[in-house]
Design goal:
The protein is of the alpha/beta class. It has 6 helices and 13 strands. The chain has a single domain (4-208), classed as 3-Layer(aba) Sandwich (Rossmann fold). Helix content is 31%, strand content 31%. β2 and β3 (61-67) form a beta hairpin. Bound molecules: 1-O-pyrophosphono-5-O-phosphono-alpha-D-ribofuranose (PRP) and uracil. Pathway: Pyrimidine metabolism; UMP biosynthesis via salvage pathway; UMP from uracil: step 1/1.
Length: 211
């Protein structure tokens, strides 16, 4: 069964409390989402493989560590996932960035795909799919399906989000047991409109100042 990790680092919890509040405006919301994403990127890359290389310091030759293994791609789910890209790129500046555009029907909560653009060698890469919210799980599953259809292996995917509902975690784990799910907070439940409680509202609208 897919693993779920809740990153309850004090800095992450503190910053999450800031973005949950109605009084936090677009500018601060955007900045703090980016900061949380950076902290999460640091943690989700903890298992990246290393290899030895020989280098020369100004004094001696020496064997030191360097990243090895798969190259990385960051895949934001549009729109709100875009808010997490800069934070990830701060830690992984050479990563490629693919995009999956989805919006959720407000009545049925069904995701609709409108855009997919991915690095050509997606099969070879470690993928970080980023989206601040995992609510019903429909968007996460549709995004991973879009990647899988284009050759990505679920076992190479980590789904990284800020706030998740237990309902979304359950369906995502059932649909993709090999995808590791990493969240900053596991909230209480969904309301009748498919919003996470206590949540933070509509992440896309809060990031981009739309309604
Ligand atoms: C939000 C959010 C997720 C999705 C989560 O996007 O960013 O992608 O809802 O809900 P789900 O788990 O029930 O599918 P939304 O569809 O509002 O689009 P946006 O990012 O363009 O605002
Ligand atoms: N999408 C959001 O942006 N917020 C929620 O609470 C649920 C889905």
């Amino acid at each position: 069964m897919g693993q779920v990790t809740v990153m309850d680092h004090p800095l992450i919890q503190h910053k999450l409390t800031i973005i949950r509040q109605t009084t936090t405006g677009t500018k601060d919301f955007r900045e703090v989402v980016s900061e949380i994403a950076m902290l999460m990127a640091y943690e989700v890359t903890r298992d990246m493989p290393l290899e030895d290389i020989e280098i020369e310091t100004p004094l001696v030759k020496s064997v030191q560590k360097t990243l090895s293994g798969k190259k990385v791609a960051i895949i934001p789910i549009l729109r709100a996932g875009l808010g997490m890209v800069d934070g990830f790129l701060a830690m992984l500046p050479a990563a490629k960035v693919g995009h999956v555009g989805l919006y959720r029907d407000e009545e049925t909560f069904e995701p609709h795909e409108y855009f997919v653009k991915l690095p050509a060698d997606i099969k070879e890469r470690q993928l970080f799919v980023v989206d601040p919210m995992l609510a019903t799980g429909g968007s996460a599953i549709a995004a991973i399906e879009a990647l899988e259809k284009r050759g990505a292996k679920p076992s190479n995917i980590k789904f990284v989000c800020l706030v998740a509902a237990p309902e979304g975690v359950k369906v995502l784990k059932e649909a993709y047991p090999d995808v590791e799910i990493v969240v900053a907070a596991l909230d209480e439940r969904l309301n009748e409109n498919g919003y996470i409680l206590p949540g933070l509202g509509d992440a896309g609208d809060r990031l981009f100042g739309t309604k």
